[in-house]
Amino acid sequence: MRRRFLAGLGFLVGFGFLTTACGSAPVVATPPPVSLISRIPGRPTSVFEVGRHPWVAVLTARGLVVQQIGSHQRAQVLTPRSSFACVGSGRFQELGSDLVVTGCRSVWLLEHHRWRKSSLPGLMSSLAGTTYQWWALAYGAAAGDLQQVTLWRSQNDGATWQRVARSALRPSALPEAEIKTGLGLASSGDLWLTGILFGEGHIQIFHGTENGTRWQPLQLSVPHAWSEAELEPYPPISLGRLTYLPVLVEGPQQALALYRKSDTSPSWTLYGALMSPIESAPWSLALASARTLWVAVGRTLWVSRDRGRKWTRVWRLPLGWQWIAVTFSTPRNGTVLAVRWEAHANAAFGPARAYALWTTADAGATWQTVTSAMLSRP
């Protein structure tokens, strides 16, 4: 499909031997957040670029509100706020040609300009799939117990689910990662599961075969400087024949590392790492094309036009502001979302004082500010 994006909470402080990006990189665009969005007060959770009318999601007192920017359609309230009160909810995601937004125990699918609800068989951890087959990694009744997870599959857009594997069963088909961080589906159709193995000195991911009933562990080597660091891989994202594996490196040397493989290669290669002066912040990664990657982290928006080897700082937000998401539907068309938090708020659950949106139609050379008039009331 068009592209993929990924967002998370992470630490991004870079180092010189894997990247040429630096904090003094030239700023090529500096549009200030001059128009603040306040018609729907709440906490923005996600933005997704779909052609001329991107979608934005905001968690409000009424529930999760989704709407298209510049569209004549009214904003829609999907469900009461309590149904989305967990980390990772309210996120747009593309499963093949399907656009969905996730809740804690439900998935909403966009069909004919309306959102249809499908229930999840547990507290959702991660979702991956194609237009014809969805996979969900979900916690069981013991919410918060990261060991007790179940892998489910749906072949009818979430109407029904079949259990594939459960970690509580012995023997279990699920791999023995200490914390399972998510699922990813490569463009080749390969299913991947990521997890954290503390103190191992390498990155371990798992390749799923036979519809997720068998998993082959793969160990990825890391530089010596990372041998004592905590290595947290996130689900792979794909565009065309290339698949990227983002890995947060937390230790004396911290970074967002990118491993890469092609559909024709069986191995992953460490391709680059982003260097940023931000110590800890939400981050979002978008693939605009096979060569162009965007990362929004902390107050800084970065771009790489050589598949992640070198990075350029696009612009930096004023104090008090923070990037939440970046998304691109084509190499030229993209949207970014920034927020200004209330005092003592945090990116996971805190309320927002204001937020701002920008769109670009020329690969980031210029940006248009989205105004309140371009958004509708629910």
The CATH architecture classification is 7 Propeller
The level-1 CATH class: Mainly Beta
- Gross morphology is globular
Task: Tell me the CATH topology.
Answer: Methylamine Dehydrogenase, Chain H
Low-confidence stretches: 1-5, 7-28
Mean pLDDT score, rounded?
Answer: 75
Looking at CATH, the homologous superfamily is YVTN repeat-like/Quinoprotein amine dehydrogenase
Query: Could you give the count of β-strands?
Result: 30
| Tally of separate domains | 1
Largest sheet: 5 strands, antiparallel
- Strand ordering within the main sheet: 1-23-24-25-26
SSE order, one letter for each helix or strand:
EEEEEEEEEEEEEEEEEEEEEEEEEEEEEE
Rg over CA atoms: 20 Å
**Helix and strand composition category:** mainly beta
Describe this structure in words.
This protein is mainly beta and 378 residues long. It has one domain (5-374): YVTN repeat-like/Quinoprotein amine dehydrogenase (Methylamine Dehydrogenase, Chain H, 7 Propeller). It is built from no helices and 30 strands. The protein has strands spanning 5-13, 43-48, 55-60, 63-68, 76-77, 91-95, 98-102, 106-111, 114-119, 123-129, 134-139, 149-154, 162-166, 179-185, 191-196, 203-209, 214-220, 230-233, 237-239, 242-250, 255-262, 269-274, 277-287, 293-297, 300-304, 312-316, 321-328, 334-341, 352-360, 368-369. A five-stranded antiparallel β-sheet has the order 1-23-24-25-26, with no helix packed on it. The protein is globular and about 50 Å long. The protein starts with a strand and ends in a 9-residue tail after the last strand. Mean pLDDT is 75; it is low at 1-5 and 7-28.
